[in-house]
Amino acid sequence: MFDVYLSDKRDLLVVRSGNPIPSGNTSGRWRKQKRRVILVSEEIRRVIESQGYYVRKVSVFSSDTNT
Asked: Which of 16, 37, 50, 54 has the smallest number of Cβ neighbours within 10 A?
């Protein structure tokens, strides 16, 4: 199982259940989501196995309304 956290900047952090939040490359304050995740994609699984955690920046959708 995996624990999922969201930061104030809406970044996504995934760690194996029971592992602490890494303090190195992660920034901001993390809030744990109420549900645990059982399955993750192969990409996320590989990154967690090599780094111990997976962090993704959530991009902001902006529409160009100046047309």
From this structure: 50
